[in-house]
Design brief:
This protein has 729 residues and is mainly alpha-helical. 58% of the residues lie in helices and 5% in strands. It catalyses: L-cysteine(in) + Na(+)(in) = L-cysteine(out) + Na(+)(out); L-proline(in) + Na(+)(in) = L-proline(out) + Na(+)(out); L-threonine(in) + Na(+)(in) = L-threonine(out) + Na(+)(out); L-glutamine(in) + Na(+)(in) = L-glutamine(out) + Na(+)(out).
Length: 729
C-alpha cells in the first residue's frame, strides 16, 4: 500500500471511519476512570483471561441485599419436602440412629465438597450453569443445558405437590377436619359407611378418592381433576409472581418461606413431646440397629439422600451463588448450609416420630380394647378357661402391659389352636415398623395423627402451610436454575422469560392433575432426575479438576477467599468424590435394572394398592425422560467439536467496557495476521496514537451493541492493511 497519507485517505474514503476519540465519545465524558482505560486483547485459547479480575463482573448484575438473604435462599432451596418425608423414612428403614453414621460420612465425602465446588464456580465466574461450564470448556457447555432440562422436569411435578398441599391447606379451616371420619352413604332403605373408606381408613379414603379422585391405572386418564387444576394454577401463579423480578423479589420472600417451616417444626416438636406415646416413637427411631448399617444398600441410599438433599447438579446452587460478591467466603457458606440441612432433617425426624408414636399408641389402645372383647367372648363360650387369666386383670380398664401378659399366657397354653382364636399381639413397635414415606406420610399418616390433636384444624393449617413454604423454597431455586442461565446466555428479559416458563410448565403440568396424575408424578420422580443428575455432577467434577485444572482452581479459591482451602478438598475433588459418584451411578443403574419398572395403583373395590408394570408407551416415556435430560451434553460437545456453529464475532476481538478498562471477550483469532497485537499482553501493545489509529466496523455489525450489564459492548477490528508499517498503526 502506498505510504502517502492522501492515498490512504482516498482508499478508505468509502469505509465508515471512527477514531478512538470518536469511540470514546460514546461513553460518559465525565468518566475519568474510563479515560484511563487500557485495551486488553489476548488469544482465545488462553483460558487464563479473567473477565472479572480487577473489576466487578457486571456493574448492574443483581446482588443479594444481605448475606442473611443469600443464606436463607440456599437453605430454602436445599431444605425441602424430602427432609420431612424422605429422611425420616430412610432413618427408620436403615437402622435408626445408626443410619446417621453413613449419612454424616457421605456428607463429608461428597456432600460438602461438591456443594462447595458449585458455590465456588458460580461465585468465581458469576454466571448461571450454562455460562459457567461454557466458560470452563465450550465443549462441556451441554452440562448447563442438561441441568436446565432436569430442573424443568422436576419443576413440572414438584409444583403439583405444592398444589396438593394448597388443597389440604384450604380444607383445614373446618371442624371437624373433613378426613376425620368416613363419609356416610344414604340409599332408600338405610344409611351405611362408604365401603371403600371402611376397608381402608378415613385419611386414606380422603386422599385417594376426595383429593385425587384417582383412576385405577396409568392408562385410565379419567379427565382433569378440576380442584387440583385450580390448585396447580395457584401454585404456578405464586411461583411466577415471586420469581418475576429474580432475586430482587424472591429474596424478600425467602425471609418467610425459609424461616416459617422451622417455627412450625419447633411448635410440632414441643406439642408432640407432650403427647402420649411420643417418647416411644422417638426411642424406636433412634435405637441403633448396627447390623443393618453394614449393608451396601444403606450406604447407597444415604449417598443418594445426601446428593439430592443439597440440590447438587440442578443449577440452582450455582445461580444463587453467581449473585454474590467475588470475595464472599463460600467455604463457610457450604459448611453452614450443609449442616443446617442435616440438622433440619434430624429435627423433622424427631417431629415425625413423636407424632407417629402418638398415632401408634392410639392404634395400639384400640387393638387392646378390640382383642380384650374377643377374649371375654371366648371366656363366655368356654373356649378359654378363667383359670388362665391372672386375678389382677380387669378387662374393663386393661392396660397394654396387662393385655400382653394375658396374650402370652394364652399363646403358651393354647399353642396348637392359638391361630384359630384370631388374637393379635398389639405391640407399639409393630405399628412403628410400618415404614411410611412421601405422600403416604404427609397426606395419610400425619393427617390421621393430627385428627387426634386438640384444636386439630389449627395444627393442620400450620402443617400444610409449612409444606407449601418448604416446596416454594425449593421451587425458587429450581426455577432460578432455569431462568438465570438462559438470561445470561441469550440476553432475554427475565420478566418475559419467567412468565413464559411458568405458563408452559402449567399447561404441561395438566397431565399431573388428571385422575391418573399421581402415577405420572411417580414416573417423573423415579426417572427424570436421578441418573441424569448423577452424570451431570460427575461431569462437573471432571470439568473443574481435569479440564480447568484443580491446581488453578485452588489458586482461584485462594484469591477469592483470602486463604488457601484445606488440602482435604483437593483430594476429595480429584480422587475420592469422582470415585464415590461413579460407584453411586453404577449402583443406581443396577438398582434400576433389578427393580421392575412400575407403580402402585389404587384399586377401588379392594381399597388397597396393587403394583402394576408400566405399559409399553409408559416405558418409552421413562426412557425418553432420561435420554432428553442428558442429551444436551453430547449434542453440544459434537457441535463444538465439529465447529458446526461459528461463535466468532470478528476476526480479532470483541471488547466491552468495564469500569475504567476494556475487558476482552474471547473470539476466534485464527487466521488473523495482525501480529502486532495478536497474543500480546496489554503491556506489549503499543500505546495508541489517537490521531492516526484507523478502525473499521465489522461487516454486518450494528453501531452499538448493548451488553448484558447495560454498558456498550462494541466489536471492532483493525482495518485489513497487512502492508501498513507499525509506525502508521
Amino acid at each position: 500500500m502506498p505510504k502517502n497519507s492522501k492515498v490512504v485517505k482516498r482508499e478508505l474514503d468509502d469505509e465508515v471511519i471512527e477514531s478512538v476519540k470518536d469511540l470514546l465519545s460514546n461513553e460518559d465524558s465525565s468518566d475519568d476512570a474510563f479515560k484511563k482505560s487500557e485495551l486488553m486483547v489476548d488469544d482465545q485459547e488462553e483460558k487464563d483471561v479473567d473477565v472479572e479480575e480487577g473489576s466487578d463482573v457486571e456493574d448492574e448484575r443483581p446482588a443479594w441485599n444481605s448475606k442473611l438473604q443469600y443464606i436463607l435462599a440456599q437453605v430454602g432451596f436445599s431444605v425441602g419436602l424430602g427432609n420431612v418425608w424422605r429422611f425420616p423414612y430412610l432413618c427408620q428403614k436403615n437402622g435408626g440412629g445408626a443410619y446417621l453414621v453413613p449419612y454424616l460420612v457421605l456428607l463429608l465425602i461428597i456432600g460438602i465438597p461438591l456443594f462447595f465446588l458449585e458455590l465456588a464456580v458460580g461465585q468465581r465466574i458469576r454466571r448461571g450453569s450454562i455460562g459457567v461450564w461454557n466458560y470452563i470448556s465450550p465443549k462441556l457447555g451441554g452440562i448447563g443445558f442438561a441441568s436446565c432440562v432436569v430442573c424443568f422436569f422436576v419443576a413440572l411435578y414438584y409444583n403439583v405437590i405444592i398444589g396438593w398441599s394448597l388443597f389440604y391447606f384450604s380444607q383445614s379451616f373446618q371442624h371437624p377436619l373433613p378426613w376425620d371420619q368416613c363419609p356416610l352413604v344414604k340409599n332408600t332403605s338405610h344409611t351405611f359407611v362408604e365401603p371403600e373408606c371402611e376397608k381402608s381408613s378415613a385419611t386414606t379414603y380422603y386422599w385417594y378418592r376426595e383429593a385425587l379422585n384417582i383412576s385405577g391405572s396409568l392408562s385410565e386418564s379419567g379427565g382433569l381433576n378440576w380442584k387440583m387444576t385450580v390448585c396447580l394454577l395457584a401454585a404456578w401463579v405464586m411461583v411466577c409472581l415471586a420469581m418475576i423480578k429474580g432475586i430482587q423479589s424472591s429474596g424478600k420472600i425467602m425471609y418467610f418461606s425459609s424461616l416459617f417451616p422451622y417455627v412450625v417444626l419447633l411448635c410440632f416438636l414441643i406439642r408432640g413431646l407432650l403427647l402420649n406415646g411420643a417418647v416411644d416413637g422417638i426411642r424406636h427411631m433412634f435405637t441403633p440397629k448396627l447390623e443393618i448399617m453394614l449393608e451396601p444398600k444403606v450406604w447407597r441410599e444415604a449417598a443418594t439422600q445426601v446428593f439430592f438433599a443439597l440440590g447438587l447438579g440442578f443449577g440452582g446452587v450455582i445461580a444463587f451463588s453467581s449473585y454474590n460478591k467475588r470475595d464472599n467466603n463460600c467455604h463457610f457458606d457450604a459448611v453452614l448450609v450443609s449442616f443446617i440441612n442435616f440438622f433440619t432433617s434430624v429435627l423433622a425426624t424427631l417431629v415425625v416420630f413423636a407424632v407417629l408414636g402418638f398415632k401408634a399408641n392410639i392404634i395400639n389402645e384400640k387393638c387392646v380394647i378390640q382383642n380384650s372383647e374377643k377374649i371375654l367372648k371366648l371366656l363366655k363360650i368356654g373356649n378359654l378357661s378363667q383359670d388362665m387369666i391372672p386375678h389382677h386383670i380387669n378387662f374393663s380398664s386393661i392396660t397394654a402391659e396387662d393385655y400382653n401378659l394375658v396374650y402370652d399366657i394364652i399363646r403358651k397354653v393354647k399353642e396348637e389352636e392359638f391361630g384359630s382364636l384370631g388374637l393379635k399381639s398389639c405391640q407399639i413397635e409393630d405399628e412403628l415398623n410400618k415404614a411410611v414415606q412421601g405422600t403416604g406420610l404427609a397426606f395419610i399418616a400425619f393427617t390421621e395423627a393430627m385428627t387426634h390433636f386438640p384444636a386439630s384444624p389449627f395444627w393442620s393449617v400450620m402443617f400444610f402451610l409449612m409444606l407449601v413454604n418448604l416446596g416454594l423454597g425449593s421451587m425458587f431455586g429450581t426455577i432460578e436454575g432455569i431462568i438465570t442461565p438462559i438470561v445470561d446466555t441469550f440476553k432475554v428479559r427475565k420478566e418475559i422469560l419467567t412468565v413464559i416458563c411458568c405458563s408452559v410448565a402449567f399447561f404441561i403440568g395438566l397431565i399431573f392433575v388428571q385422575r391418573s396424575g399421581n402415577y405420572f408424578v411417580t414416573m417423573f420422580d423415579d426417572y427424570s432426575a436421578t441418573l441424569p443428575l448423577l452424570i451431570v455432577v460427575i461431569l462437573e467434577n471432571i470439568a473443574v479438576t481435569r479440564i480447568y485444572g484443580i491446581d488453578k482452581f485452588m489458586e482461584d479459591l485462594k484469591d477469592m477467599l483470602g486463604f488457601s482451602p484445606s488440602q482435604y478438598y483437593y483430594y476429595m475433588w480429584k480422587y475420592v468424590s469422582p470415585l464415590v459418584l461413579l460407584c453411586l451411578l453404577v449402583a443406581s443403574i443396577v438398582q434400576m435394572g433389578l427393580s421392575p419398572p412400575g407403580y402402585n395403583a389404587w384399586i377401588e373395590y379392594t381399597a388397597t394398592e396393587e403394583f402394576h408394570s408400566y405399559p409399553t408407551w409408559g416405558m418409552i416415556v421413562c426412557i425418553s425422560l432420561m435420554v432428553l435430560a442428558i442429551l444436551p451434553v453430547p449434542i453440544v460437545f459434537m457441535v463444538r467439536r465439529c465447529n458446526l456453529i461459528d461463535d466468532s464475532s470478528g476476526s480479532l476481538a470483541s471488547v466491552s467496557y468495564k469500569r475504567g478498562r476494556i475487558i476482552k471477550e474471547p473470539v476466534n483469532l485464527e487466521g488473523d495476521n495482525t501480529s502486532l497485537i495478536h497474543g500480546k499482553s496489554p503491556s506489549e501493545v503499543p500505546s495508541p496514537n489517537f490521531g492516526k489509529n484507523i478502525y473499521r466496523k465489522q461487516t454486518g455489525s450494528p453501531t452499538l451493541d448493548t451488553a448484558p450489564n447495560g454498558r456498550y459492548g462494541i466489536g471492532y477490528l483493525m482495518a485489513d492493511m497487512p502492508d501498513m508499517p507499525e509506525s502508521d498503526l
